[in-house]
Structure formats: structure tokens, C-alpha cells
Specification:
Blueprint lengths: L5 H5 L7 H15 L9 H15 L2 H8 L23 E2 L13 H16 L7 E7 L1 H6 L1 E12 L5 E12 L8 E4 L18 E7 L6 E3 L2 E8 L1 H6 L1 E7 L2 E7 L8 E4 L12 E7 L7 H13 L13
Parallel strand pairs: 2-6, 8-12
Antiparallel strand pairs: 1-2, 3-4, 5-6, 7-8, 9-10, 11-12
Helix pairs in contact: 2-3
């Protein structure tokens, strides 16, 4: 995906005030508007100018865009950094899906998700939204957490900055990724509230922080389970620590790499609870000591095993 430098498109600095952005846009619109311009690429340039102005003239879009950082080196595709917009509060009103019509893939990638996100919440016009990261363990036990949100604010000169506000949020046990926590009356005062309107709700879309071992999918958990060769060959019972406690997992004799084991009802608590899936990975120990080398040499002599005997055969 090609990065769009909206500041360069309008010819303004990254710290430009709102009036400077508006003046730059009007100047370029007079130059490239297809109805009056004689430039050969007027239509294309006008579309690019309109897209840049749609972002930089909107405090929320501009604040989100500024979080992406600078463009990648020439010739390299751009991908948004993981979690770049986590904890950013925005209003569904400001991120209309119609804005993206005719704009670039870059615009759709950055702002289109927000439009779909807001509409899927069933949000009202004064509601605000944010995507928040929680610990997977909170889904098992429930918790009360203090969460920080980044809120775009405009100063007296029309420059945008992010302010932080904190909230105490009750996390219900059994919450899943993609679900929404609604905080009644907690929408911030960026819009209608300053005109005397009743504040809307704050809708928090839940995502989980990356976990060292587990990958949640809905109510289920998935993980790779390392086992020793003798555990796979002979069978074993191995303890595995889950967010909800320790689970004893039975490895069947003759387990092969990639075999999937399923433990019902030990995933994220819900009605019904999710399951846990273990993908077996056989870890070969090194021959790091003379004794370990001797054991491998003994196994080599005693075992009638050729790992390549099935080469060329149809599966």
C-alpha cells in the first residue's frame, strides 16, 4: 500500500494551523478544479487534494494520521504499525463511510475500518468509540482496570494534539475479542456536548494484548505444545498453566508433529465455555554432553528407523 503524505500534498508543515490548511486547500482548489483548470492532470490532482483536506481539516482524522509516523523509504510498501490506534477515542459522526468514496486505498485502510467499527456498534450520533487492549487473564476472572484513552483536542490556533483521559472500567468475566463495553454517558465533550447536547456513550471495542503462549479465537484458545520425543513416542501427561489454572494434558503414544489435541470447556468462560486446542511440536534435545551423545549413538544402533523411507511415496 502506498503511503499518502497529506501535508506534502497541500504544501503545509506538519504543525500547520487549521487556517493555514484551509488557505492551502483553497489555493490548490482554484488551480486544479476540473471546471476551471487547464492542467492536464487536474482531475487526479484535485482528487488527491480533496483527500488530503478531508483528513487534515478533521481534528480526529488528523490526530489519527499523525500517529502513523513518516513515510517508508521509496519503493517500500507501507503497513500501519500494529496497534497504532489502540486507545484512540473518536466519534462515529466524524468517520463516515461515505468519506472514503473515490479516495485511495491508503485512506480506506486507515479510516474505513473505523467507519465499519462505529456502525457495527449500533452507536448513536453522540457516541464515541475506542479500541482497548486487555490482558487475556481478565477474560477468565473479570477485573476492574484503569484504562487510558487518547483524545484529540484543538487549541486556539487550530492545531491538534492528543490529551489523555483515564477511566475505571469493569471488565466482565467471559468477555471476548471484538465485544464492546458500553459506558453510558462517558462520550467525551468534543462535539455536541459543548452546545448543550446530552453526551453520548463511550463504546470500548475489546482486543487482547499479545500473549506469550495463547492465541484467542472467539471463546477458544490455541497454543503450540512443545513435547520431548519420548513423550510423543511413549505418551505422557504434562501440566500446562492456563489463565484459569493448571491443566493436565494427556499426550497419546505415537503423537506426531502437528497433531491437535482438544480440551473441552477450558477456554474463555462463557455459556457455553470455549475449548483449548494444543498443536503438538516435538522438540529434539541437543547432544551437548558426552553422555547425551552416547545415548543418541545407542539409539541410532538399536532403533530400526529411517526418517526418509517414505520419500517419493504418495501421501
Amino acid at each position: 500500500m502506498e503511503f499518502k503524505d497529506y501535508y506534502a500534498e497541500l504544501g503545509v508543515a506538519r504543525g500547520a494551523a487549521a487556517d493555514d490548511i484551509k488557505k492551502a486547500y483553497r489555493k490548490l482548489a482554484r488551480k486544479y478544479h476540473p471546471d476551471v483548470s487547464k492542467e492536464p492532470d487536474a482531475g487526479k490532482r484535485m482528487a488527491a487534494v480533496n483527500e488530503a483536506y478531508a483528513v487534515l481539516a478533521d481534528p480526529e482524522k488528523r490526530a489519527a494520521y499523525d500517529q502513523l509516523g513518516s513515510a517508508p523509504p521509496p519503493g517500500q510498501d507501507f503497513r500501519p504499525p500494529p496497534g497504532w490506534d489502540d486507545g484512540m477515542e473518536f466519534s462515529g459522526r466524524e468517520f463516515s463511510g461515505r468519506d472514503a468514496a473515490g479516495f485511495s486505498d491508503f485512506f480506506s485502510e486507515i479510516f474505513g475500518r473505523r467507519s465499519a467499527q462505529g456502525s457495527s456498534f449500533g452507536a448513536g450520533s453522540n457516541d464515541h468509540h475506542a479500541r482497548v487492549l486487555l490482558d487475556l487473564e481478565d477474560a477468565y476472572t473479570g477485573a476492574e482496570r484503569q484504562l487510558s484513552l487518547r483524545v484529540p483536542k484543538v487549541d486556539g490556533e487550530g492545531r491538534v494534539a492528543l490529551e489523555t483521559r483515564t477511566l475505571n472500567v469493569k471488565i466482565p468475566a467471559g468477555i471476548r475479542e471484538g465485544q464492546v463495553i458500553r459506558l453510558a454517558g462517558q462520550g467525551s465533550a468534543m462535539g455536541g456536548e459543548m452546545q448543550g447536547a446530552k453526551p453520548g456513550d463511550l463504546l470500548l471495542e475489546v482486543a487482547f494484548k499479545p500473549h506469550a503462549r495463547f492465541h484467542p479465537q472467539g471463546r477458544d484458545l490455541h497454543m503450540t505444545l512443545p513435547v520431548a520425543p519420548w513423550e510423543a513416542a511413549l505418551g505422557a501427561i504434562v501440566p500446562v498453566d492456563l489463565p484459569g489454572g493448571t491443566l493436565k494434558v494427556r499426550i497419546p503414544a505415537g503423537a506426531k508433529p502437528g497433531k491437535q489435541l482438544r480440551i473441552r470447556g477450558k477456554g474463555i468462560p462463557s455459556s457455553p465455555p470455549g475449548d483449548v486446542y494444543f498443536d503438538v511440536r516435538i522438540v529434539v534435545p541437543p547432544a551437548a554432553t558426552p553422555k547425551e551423545k552416547e545415548l543418541y549413538e545407542s539409539l541410532q544402533k538399536e532403533a530400526n528407523f529411517d526418517p526418509r523411507k517414505d520419500w517419493g511415496r504418495a501421501p
